[in-house]
Each structure stands twice: as C-alpha cells, then as structure tokens.
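# step 3/5: fold
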Amino acid sequence: MRGETFLATARRVVDREAEALGLLAESLGQDFCRAVDMILETKGRVIVSGMGKSGHIGRKIAATLASTGTPAHFVHPAEASHGDLGMVARGDVALILSNSGETPELADIVAHTRRFAIPLIGVAGRPHSTLLRQADVAILLPPAQEACDTGIVPTTSTTMTLALGDALAIALMEHRQFTPEHFRLFHPGGKLGARLSRVGDLMHGAAEMPTVPAGAPMSEALLAISQKGFGVVGVVDDTGLKGIITDGDLRRHMVGLLDRTVDEVMTTRPRTIVPEALAERAVAVMQDAKITCLFVVAAEDSRKPIGILHIHDCLRVGVA
C-alpha cells in the first residue's frame, strides 16, 4: 500500500515536469533567438549566475556550454559582491537565472552589467520582475505548477531552467558545427573521452611496427613476431603493406614452414585502418574480423603502414 503511494507521487512529479517542458517548448520565441545571437556575437565568455537551486542549475549550464564550444563559467552572486565581479568584464555576456526575478543577492551583479554595458540575458518565471525588466533579453518561463503540492519546492521551475540551458547550448553547438572531434578536446578523460579517442592517439609508431620485406625467409618473420610481441608481422614492398602473417597463417603452413618465404604464408589484402578513425571503430573492425591487430596506413587509398594498433591498446583506455 505504501509502495503504491510512493509510485503515485513519483508519477505525478514526472508528469508535471514533463507537462512543464511541453509548455516551455511552446513558449520559446524570438527572445530565445536573440539570446543565441547575443552569445554568438560576444568576444568573451558567458557568465552564468544564480542563487540557491538556480545556482546549482547555473553551474550545470555553464559546464555544458563550456564543453560544447561556448566559453563559460559560473560566478556565485554572493561571491561576486565580495570581489568576484572582477570576473565579469566588457566583452562578456551574462546569463542570470532566478525563478522569482527578485533574488536580492543578484542585485550587485545585475547592477555591474548595467554599469559596464555588459549584455544581460535574464531568465525568470515572473513577468515584469526586476531581473526581466533590467535584462537586454528577457526569457520568461511559462507558468507551471511545482511538483510538490505546496508549490514551495523548486522542482518544475528548475527543470525548465535546466532544459532551457541545454537548448541554448545545443543551438550554439549546432550553429558552430561542433563535431565529436571538437567534443573530445574537452573530454579527454573517462568513458566519453575513450570512445572519442582516435587510432592515431593509441597506435604504436613505425619503430615498434613488426614488418619484414617481401621475399624474406620465414625464419626472419618468426624472429620479428617474437621480438615485437604483437603476434603478427606485416610483409612490405616498395608499394607498402603487401600482406600479414598471423598465428593462424603459421598453423596452416606448419609443415615445412621454415622452408617457405613470407609471400607463401602471408594473407594478402589485410584489414587496415587510418589514424583519424575513432578507436571505437577500430575495435568494431577487429571484433568483426576476429583479429587482435590492425596495421595503420597513412590514408584510405594508401598501403603505406605508419603504425600498428592492438585491441589491448583500446581496452586499456576503456574502449570496448
């Protein structure tokens, strides 16, 4: 019985917030477009500020903007009044969040933007509030009931503000044609950074690459396999990578192996990859072909080997 009550509350909260997001989507108009244009035109940073729950949402918005190509940082309004206003300079644009639009702690930072002609985007839930009246661009959140029945806990309002911040970030990102490669520059760590790692970042270079010349005896190939430790050796000629010898090739030619040349044992037209490819793509190729190594070639239409990638190199950084 108690569990059913909990579930009913949870569903009511989610339904109210989902409804509020629908209202927000319908309410967006030219003020949103003006805000995006204002940020695009700025030569400085987006300074995000807010107090209380709006401040927590502001920190996330600033982080999302910064990670998607729009330089931004969060300035706490109380700290701003004690010296951090120096972080807000001409050339910046301020994004100030307040559900009521009357948060007293925001007074100094709002006044600072007015004094130094710093463009101000205000986001609030009350029309004609001080924040929206002072803002160069005023974005009014639609009237929506908070998730709690008392209406005093910032829930629906903060969800709308967060979604609005995401909408700004994605609109800016898409306009700037921000690619996964750009994204990786700001996310080198963790699973996300690993997924966006390139083959060229992980591969072993020419000095470690196991190769033998075409026509070489198999004894030379076995020595290269043993010394380099990749379990394979590439066969090269003047045109580039001619073939590859793997453990499977060795087993198939076990009888009289040392009497053969590498050309007789190798597999021709081996799978290769380019250094610009994502490591995740390399893993997919290796899994599909049931192999553990890929030679890296200079370009898609090139056979010139410039390195080698082992599946363990990918797994070591979290690409799986």
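# step 4/5: annotate
Residues 2-178 form a domain with the Rossmann fold fold (CATH 3.40.50.10490).
# step 5/5: archive (pending)
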